[in-house]
Structures are given as C-alpha cells and as structure tokens.
Amino acid sequence: MKQVALPLEDLHVWAHFNDVQLFQASIEPHIMREDGNDKGGGLVAKSEHGPGEPLVAVPSELVLSKERVEQYAKADQDLKELIEAAAALSQNPRTAVLLFLIYQMTINIPSSQGRALGFNNPFAGYVKLLPHEILLPTFYTAEERKLLIGTSLAEALDQKLISLEREFDNLKAATAKIPWCQEIWWSECADCLTLEDWKLADAMYRSRALELPRNAGVGMVPVIDMANHASDRRYNARFEVDEGSGSILLVVRDDRIVQQGEEITIMYGCGGACEMIFSYGFLEEHASSAREMFLSLSIPADDPLRMAKIRLAQEAPGVRIYVDDSDQVRWESSFVWWACVNEEDGLDFRVEQTIDGDAELKALWKDKALVTDTLQSILLQDRLRDIFVLRAVVTVQERIEAQGSQLAESEDHYISTVRSDQVRESVYGPIGKLRGLEMKLLTRAYETLEREKAGLLESKVVGDYLAQGQADTESPAGTPDDFS
Ligand SMILES: C[S@@+](CC[C@H](N)C(=O)[O-])C[C@H]1O[C@@H](n2cnc3c(N)ncnc32)[C@H](O)[C@@H]1O
Question: Are the CB atoms for 98 and 201 separated by under 8 Å?
Fold first, then answer.
C-alpha cells in the first residue's frame, strides 16, 4: 500500500483536537544523541518541572489496545467483518492492534475513498503521523542480516520473519472472501496490501506499545509514545494512570527535576542489547553490557528418546544467559534438563489410551508419572543431582562455545563490509556494538560455567559416578559421560 504520511510537525495540532494536554512540553521533530545519532522526534520541557509534576495527559479513549479495537468494531460494520473473519489474529492483543492499524492505513489511501470504509476517527490521523521508516531488524536488507551472524539476534530475527509471514498468510486466507478486502487488499493493484505493510504495523506497535500500570494492559498511547529512551540512571519521566479519569499521565520521575529545554525520557523495559535492537532498532550510547541473551538448544540427534522429549517438553527450547543485579553472570533453562537424562537414569515414555480412545504420550520418572514441567525440580532433588547439573552445565557451555566461535569466525566479514545503501551506517554501528557486547557476555558465561564445572567435579557423587563408569567400561557394556 502506498502509505499516506503527515509530518511530525502536525502532531501538536492532532494532539490539540483530541484533548491531549501538554503541560509546558513540546513535541520536537528531531532530537540528536550525544554521539550524533538521530533519535527521530521526541518530547522537550518548555519550563522547569518538579518531581511528580505532569508533563502530558492522554485521555483513556486514545489508548489503542485490543479492547479499543473491539469497541470500534461495534460501531463499524467493515471493521467488525474483518475482526470476525480474522478471529485467530483478533484474539491476540498484539495482532488485534495490528489489524486495526492496517485498517486505518487502508482508510487513508485514496483508492479506498469510494468505498466509504470506516468513519472519521482519531487513529486514522495518528497512523499518518507515525514514522513510516523504522529501523527495526525486520526491515534489514539481506546484506545487513549477514552482519548478524553469530549474534543472538540472527536467530530471533529468522523466527520473527517466519511468524510475520505466517500471520500475513493467515490474514489473506481469512479475509479473501470479504468483498472490500478482495477489492482493496487482494486484487493485483498498486495499492494492494503486502507483507511490508504488515511488517510496518508490527514495527509501529513493537517500538511504541507500553505496558500500562495498574493492570491496564498493553497499548499504544499517542504523544506519550513520542518519549525517547534513556538508561536506568538517566531517564527522567514515568507514566501512570490517573485514578479518577483513567487518563494516561506522563509525569516527572519522583527524584528528578526536568529543566527547561531538557528532553523528557522514559526507560523502555530492562531487556538486553539484543532485545533493544529487536524491538526498538537502537542501542543505548552508554551500553556496556549485553545484559542477557537467549540461545536455542536442541536434543542431540543420537538421543534415543529425542522425538518423545521434543513432543512433551513445554519449555522454550533454549537457555537464557544474563547478568544479575550483583553483576554475576547466570544461566537459566528449564529445557536443558530434557537433554540431561535418559532411560538408564529413570526417564521413560509410555503411550496410553485416553477415555475417547485416542493415544496419549506420557512421561515417567523412575516408573512414576512425571508432570513434565516438574522435571527440573525432580532432578534437583535426586540423589544424583550433581551429575545431572554437571551434564546441564556441559551442555550449556558447549552451546556458548559454538555461539562464540560463530561470532568470532564472522568478525572478518563484519569488519570488511563497506557501507552502502545495502548496509546503512545507522544499522552497521549498532550491530557492531551488539557483536562486541555479546562476545563479552559469552566469554564471561563460558568462564562462569568452567568454574561451576570444576566445583561439580569435586563432588563425591560425581566422583563415585565417574569411578563406577570407569569400572563399567572395563567390563563391555558401559560408556561413561565425557565431562572434559
Ligand atoms: C516510542 S518511539 C519514540 C519516538 C520516536 N523517536 C519517533 O520519532 O516517533 C521509539 C523509537 O524512537 C527511537 N529512539 C528512542 N530512544 C532512542 C535513543 N535513546 N536513541 C536512539 N533512538 C531512540 C527509536 O527509533 C525507537 O524505535
């Protein structure tokens, strides 16, 4: 679709006509970082504001959430038809808002004007005022994506692109028979709906949606979503819900004073460097740690129980490596335990008949029914706990080593890549920083696991187990674990 856009300079007019209050604060179209990078638009205080003082107030009717979409659908037959047909998408808070955003984009294009789609509402104007070029990884070129090899973002992006494509295909299949969708979206005209439009709606939502306080859900809050990010120590404003009116307020952080001319900033969650680029397309200029990364794990191909484990494991197949509040590197994974035990330890699977006559796969631990999400706690209470933990530590450490090697091997390609319209400077820079920060975290995690491994190898349980394995290999049947 040819997107209809308005300059950000017009946002204050939109704000005025939609009862958004700016308390001596202005919307600026360009704010530069200390390192010279452009943050896009932002909010600036026009006078000094003390702790807790309001900066912006947005009426609750302007919060764009799944509930708002449902409310609009009650009064708009075309939107209702869309929401009902694409039920799988409209039941999810994120995709419900995405549907609404592409519906507003559709209302705005000239080729839909004759269809009298929708009715005059603030969100059609809001969508025109949002940036239409967003530097999120879902818009990276093929050359830029190659620079991600070895980072945790590479895999996250692959998965994201697959899921966006799947959502778009579902949308197409679900709405193919709705006349207005057929005519405007799916006929082969210049203005038809494409995957790029769906990606744009996703990027708008992902980079702007806020988790609202007081269980008010997740939503996009116009104007407050102009606040840029600053780190934990530097941000100066927070948002809250006004108890009486339900309005969303942006107020000065309790221990701060915002000076005249100072930028108003909030903190976008506490995710790691990968999450920051994934959801917002930038890295803090002062970031000195990747903070966390998620690496995928799989059950080895030669594991005889592999298929059953994959079917029953409910956890995300991976490990999260993170730096805790006391700057220690830690790891957590509920999945890895499935890779650490087998039949000889006491794990088994059985196919049982259900009352309806269907076959159902069940897990057993030492001949007792195993509730699958309790595997980790069961193993941590077992007599052979240290053995299982040692296997988990080795598995995670090997995964970290493989990731680190991939990152190191692809470094020459990163360094020798020349900037062009296929590799933008604004993308090259953050990726380089991410590569450096993740390498640092992987190295620290590897060393931490090495210490954990050394500690476990001192354990009597492990010593006895290895001695037993040694004795068994001297007789024909046994194969000891390799913890080298
Ligand atoms: C919620 S919007 C904030 C308003 C945005 N600047 C705009 O013009 O629409 C989030 C986006 O602003 C930009 N941004 C926010 N904080 C930033 C920062 N500290 N450095 C660089 N870009 C930033 C990123 O593009 C991010 O995806």
Answer: yes
